[in-house]
Please model this.
Amino acid sequence: MEQKSLMEKIISLAKRRGFIFPSSEIYGGLAGVWDYGPLGVELKNNIKREFWKSMVLIRDDVFGIDAAIFMNPRVWEASGHLESFSDPLVECRKCNQRFRADHQDLILEHENWHKKRGEEVLWTEPKNFNLLVESYLGTVEGEKSKVYLRGEITQGVHVNFKNILNTLSPSLPFGVAQIGKAFRNEIAPGNFVFRSREFEQMELQYYVYPDDKESMEYLEYWKNERLNWYISLGLKKENLRFRMHEKDELAHYAKSAWDIEYNSPFGGFKEFEGIHHRGNWDLKRHSEYSGEDLSYFDSKTNKRFIPYIIETSGGVDRAVLFFLIDSYFEDKDRVILKLHPKLAPYKVAVFPLLANKPELVDFAKKLYNDLKLNLNFKIVWDDRGNIGKRYYSQDEIGTPYCVTVDFDSLKNQDVTIRDRDTAEQIRMPIDKLKSYFEEKINK
Ligand code: GAP
Model:
């Protein structure tokens, strides 16, 4: 399959089948902002649910939090974002278009565009452009106070460190996980939802003893945990790799940093998730700026110190995009999204063989309602067109199982189950469906 057209196919499928739409599209959209449709929100929620399960629900050492998007602006001074959260920007003096100075391919493309028109391009000197999005709170004009939409969800965890210690008294090492929106005034949003101005992150802040050797071991541990999580949900191992950040590209807070990268159809391996050793940067800075003591008292050693932080920071929207790309298959004119059953927006579709036979429709509707009530996942009804078209339609959105009620079902109390990936069909008694699907979907 030709790589460039794969991306076009994904974008078109996402729009056509209700995964992702341009935001406020009827007004012409808004660059770098996207809406998730009925199918997209299910896929996204499934990814977030699996993240939460693996990082919080099944672990004794990680707790959850849901901090606010607006924060006291001093947070962003302390965190270093007001000073250092920027990208180098150049502006074309000819047409005033702005580009990231480190995006050489786009700069070259722009120069060629002008050259074709016989024009020479002159660029401004690169200047640092802060990515924090500003807003204003308050009701009195002139007295409104400037706030920032959070540029990363991380700080909402660290400013609550004392609250977590006071309420749960956890022992080191322990972590706090969070999922939520972040906002960045990206100079060059693009590649569909890959680089957006409003996006969601799923993160863990893991507090460890401030010991260089031990903290590096935890960094290694979390790198592997996170890579294996993506693989366990069906991403192809060969499309994932680690990349270490060079000294000159480390973020202002990082002692050491790695990316999990995905082999994308738009220019090869791209950042997917960051695994960072943040040292004691955040807690130390928030202690200094707030005047609050954010140290940890270790009752085993009777020592007080500021822990180190190991962070895992993934993009939910990038996960949606990469799971879509990785699961996309074509079999002649059939498109199949081979999403892991845990991630598939709809797990089971129920059909009557013929939509104009009331006895089949009544039987199938009753079965559909029973399954909906008894299974803890999204089930869908489909009686449009013929059965072949329904299979094609469900394959294209990744529904792993289709259940068909036919005339034999009325006599024998059984149905046909058709498997998305193999197209094989088996006959199954109705009273076995619940346990069958529970096992298949949660495997
Ligand atoms: N707390 C650390 C942090 O925010 P980051 O590397 O800037 O680190 C973490 O971001 C992850 O968030 C990235 O690996 C990516 O998956 C996602 N992300 C960052 N900027 C994004 C954007 N503009 N659009 C979509 N996802 C983005």
Observations:
- The chain has 14 helices and 23 strands.
